[in-house]
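[scheduler] slot 2 assigned
[scheduler] job type: sequence-to-structure, two independent chains
[scheduler] chain ordering preserved from manifest
[runner] begin chain α
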Amino acid sequence: MRLIQTFQHIPYSRDINFDGNLEETSSRNSRTHPIDIYVADFSQYTIPIIQHHWHEKLQFMVVMEGHIQFEIAGETFVLAKGEGVFINSNVIHMSAPVNGAQAQLFSILFDTGVLGGVDQVGLKYILPIVDCPNLKYVILKPSMPWQRNMLQYLSHMLEVGEKQEFGFELEQKNDLGCLWLIFIRNMRDTLSSVPKKNSVDESRIKAMLEFIHKHYGENISLQEIADAAQLSKSECCRCFQRTLKASPFEYLIQVRISIASNLILNTDASIGQIAEQVGFNGLSYFHKTFKSMMHMTPMEFRKNGKSE
């Protein structure tokens, strides 16, 4: 499928990779430049979705084409072209095109040290954002003047990264500093307000997601998932519904099918071997589940993937 917009110097993110704790790991991160910029074209993903994950870095995401649904800290919303979102450090999030339509976004990730460390700048203007329990994310819309200014700086950072003229890294850091100044000035009331909700659910769901991603190939039970966060089975289910809007087993099936899809395209293992490897006891159940989620059989998926 044709890319909506093409870049030569901005890397494309394909399938997002995670470590054992569901924290994003990526080969796109530069060891010499502390700001990571990449484009996500969902048509290039094995499954058009960026699954639930988190990372220590702060992140801005801007929709370039289409409509994209985001789920951040258990809350769901849709952003259109030109709109963006700030995602705080270590906050669980995912994104996917609306109705599977073609969509594209760019993302900017950076460590807090880019703006300031343990000095006065970091302590006064960065850590209050990172440590604020009721600031999981902030939606950015062009209709708000200060948010429009931030979006313009973000787009300019993308443009500068693509041109890569001499000194572009300094220009990107300057843009980031300018947009952060706008951001922190408009977040003062939020930082001083009472937290909206407890972060206990977030730590619990992280523990259970980590367990699922480590043991998805086993015959795991609801009790084992609940035990990972020291919860009862009923509270485990309520926690999943509150944060991910899905049951533990619905999420487990999504993980299994996602991993199976990658194995089907990238290995020569038989469908039966893959089904067993990702935790399905019966081949017929795997076929039925795969087709209901992917709208084609595993063999059709492999054939279409190889032809593309």
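[runner] end chain α
[runner] begin chain β
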Amino acid sequence: MPLPNPLTRASLNHVFNKHPKSSASSQLLTNPSGVKFTPFRPPFWLSNPHLQTILPKFFAPAIPNYRRVLVKDSLDESDVAYDFYDADDSDFDSKIDGKTHGKRQIDTPLVVLFHGMEGSSDSHYARALAHAVHAKGWHFVVPHFRSCGGVPVKGEVFYTAGDTDEIHHNLTTLSQTYATIYAVGVSLGGAALANYVGKFGDEAVCQAAAVVSAPVDMPSAAIKLHRGVGHRVYTPYLLNPIIQKALSNQLSETEISQIKRLKRVSDFDHLFTAPRHGYRSATDYYHRASALPRLIDVVRPTLIVSAKDDPFLGFLATPPDVSDSVTLMETEHGGHIGFLSYRSPQDNPKAGKSFDVNWLPETVLAYFDHLNA
């Protein structure tokens, strides 16, 4: 596989957070959609990538009143939780329950969110997007990955960034009820969605996609995650929940002993993720599941949003890496699925001083709304 960027000092600086400074006007690297986006400009005291990554969960809106439906996965083994936040409209007379009733499709658009590693419909970004979609009068759903959302896995297969068959199954199931589907993927879910739209081309079920804070180049992302603050702060947060799930699965005493000693996500991927999902090793998994080589084949309109200071990401996609259907947006700040804004009384006189996580859902919906119009 060719390297995503030449191994120059500039490209290595890009990976390890020593980026050259650029103006906010350079956020859009490609924009075939022609959408006019609002730049992300946090105040200087809120621009730290770790603040941007950690703080949003404390300012997320309330958990929506989801409607949960359990649907079998693409292997017909495990139940998967689909959490819906339905629009308040009159055309909602056919509710998905995993079966086809022959009723007419719903005309109001559906926004589908594929969450990140160990995320769920309760994640801060899911809540923010759900409320924004609902306020727009559209439908929203989070189809969880296997083992997530409080529903235990029943087979040996969990989830990976390369499982495009599961993404296709999710969207195909939903397309039986909804005529217009827009897909959003964040972090690992974004990597899986990017893989999907690249691999399936014009056969992708969604009309458009938005990929946010996604490790499209997984080898460099793994290196980035294991360095400095990222390793000390984020590795336990990501690793501990999935280790507990793995230990509840059917494992040998040797596997249990090895997993309990793991200290890095890549070690878990090598010992558990790779062999369970048809990969030779973690290296083979990261190589084959990287979406970057597939972005040149994307046909559906796709927005890719990345922050240059994201502590989880390595190499980012550049204009030569993507097709003419892809809009590339890079922000100077934002951390990992952060994009936390601060509104002063001058910006919002009625609310006074406030933090909010609305920039990301507003950006994604502006993209979809432009295409829908």
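[runner] end chain β
[qc] chain β: Residues 218-289 form one domain.
[scheduler] slot 2 released
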